[in-house]
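Q: What does the predicted 3D structure of DUF1570 domain-containing protein look like?
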Amino acid sequence: MTFVGLTAPRTNAIIATAMRAPFLFLCLLAVLFGSLPAHADQPPIEVASPHFTLITAAGEKQGRHLLDNFERMRWMFQTLFPRAKVDPDTPVIIIALRNKKEFQTFEPKEYIAKGQLNLAGYFLNTNERNYVLLRLDAESEDHPYATVYHEYTHLQFRDAGDSMPLWLNEGIAEFFQNTEFHDKQVLLGEPSAADILYLREASLIPLATLFRVDHNSPYYHQEEKGSVFYAESWALTHYLEVTGHQSGKDRIGDYMTRVSQHEDPVVAAQEAFGDLNELLKQLAYYIRGAQYKEFILNSAAAPIDSASYKVRTMTQAEFDGRRADVLAYAGRGDEARALATSIMAADPKLPEPHETMGYLTLTAGDHEAARKWYAEAVQLHSQDFLVYYQFATLSMSSSDISVGQQVESSLRTCIQLNPRFAPAYDELAAWYARKHDRLDEAQALDQQAVQLDRTNLYFRLNAANLYMMRDQLDRADQTLQFARTLAKTPDQAAMIEDRVKLIASMRKARASGATFVSQSNLPTVADTGTSVKVIPIENPPKHPVEPAKGPRHTVLGSIRNVHCDSPSYLELQVQIAGKPTAVSLYSSDYFNLDLSALGFEPKKEMNPCRDLNGFTAKVTYAESSDKTIDGQIVSVELHK
């Protein structure tokens, strides 16, 4: 990492008497039920800055102060890492609770246990939500929000993915977790006394071992080993940053560049840091020396205008609606459902509890119920972009034509509400591709998805599929070549190779003198005057490409004779026990097949073309206008 505009580090001698706490985050006690009164004379408010939304019952002054600090932290990361994507796809919502009693009504399920210590802050990060929970009565303590700052740092480096080794990912988060904000300065890298004391008493992990620790390692999961892993990752990151700043060399940046190019992490470290045994000796000396340095960042010029923050008073129902949503994502589903139900009874026109019910039923596997809840939230003019996205994706397989017609408008509303949300662009592109309509626009949408999330393999595959459909084989091939660098599993690599082989076969057919005419079997004459057989750029669909709007049926049996064809056609049979004949079914778009598992979790990512044969499954299908086949697949539920 390269620090921009920092003064020289300041020395900080460490004196500590406390032992290091367990590396797992500690939590609070009991569960409270029912509606939480905000305050007799202080209604809850919502304060919105350009990049964060804060909800609190502690008053506007406190809310503005907290938002200032989060905006300054965001500015700090943007300044230090100008190429980083500082804003996540989903907004960060901060909920500032005044005391332990209020905090207990929000905290996640797994942190409610007898005998646990107080937690001052928590960062709830999921694919759909970024919630920060803070206890305001802990502000006077040293680094009360270290956990929040730690997790917010992880959020900043989310796009690095597997290219950032775990030790460095955790080391940087530990480096920033003790950040302090003052009127005109930000102090970075303050060491943890507990970390230092722990490292003095524990044996250091050999660096070759440290650099290979992954999410499956005991150094990441077991408490004793995990404690030294976190502490040593922090110490090494801190040492490399301080010495790098003093020498003017960005050794961590050099290391990251090598690792991102798939170089072995230990070899990359040897080339970037030098002899690892010598580095470990220097690190041990650094730890024993107790002369640590902090960085000072001048934040007086940070472009923060608290006067521009938008403030509004919330109703109690709105406040409780937000709490119900937090509880749903925090694993307290029964409480979330009860609270949402009571809110709907009190205020039927409030969309938030309908959104929460949609999420709860979706995670329970009831897609049709979830679609109805999201539809109600849409009708109540929800301002949550995820509501429109979920409604659209759940409606794509609906046999109701009127619902299908709302898919495009819902996805466009999602994009309008959150232009940074890449999946909405990809889904809208898939919707057009499925109908073989507006393919130029579909291609542009998928390219936008790729630009917004450059590490998503499936956006690249979908973009390549569209290029193939449009007979732009060179661009499809280029897209797949880059996608190879993103594949993390053998199945993902195989999916890419299947498409590369298909492109090669299409090129070979061309080279033999064939003329490619999309979706046509009429003979033609090439420019040379030689009569040739026409080979279409994609196989004409064997069965109709149409909405699954016919009468629906469900069968339970063994899947047999799975066959796939380009670009996304799938055909299979379901053999029902005791029946002489099998049910023959098809899907014209297996990339969007509703595939789920009941009672087990697949050990690997399922590829419909290779992995379905032999499975017992419940298959729902709709009758097709083509009576040569039994129907079109709506969903497949695999049974163990």
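A (community wiki): The structure tokens above were generated from the sequence. The chain is about 45% helix and 15% strand. Residues 266 and 487 are 21 Å apart (CA to CA).
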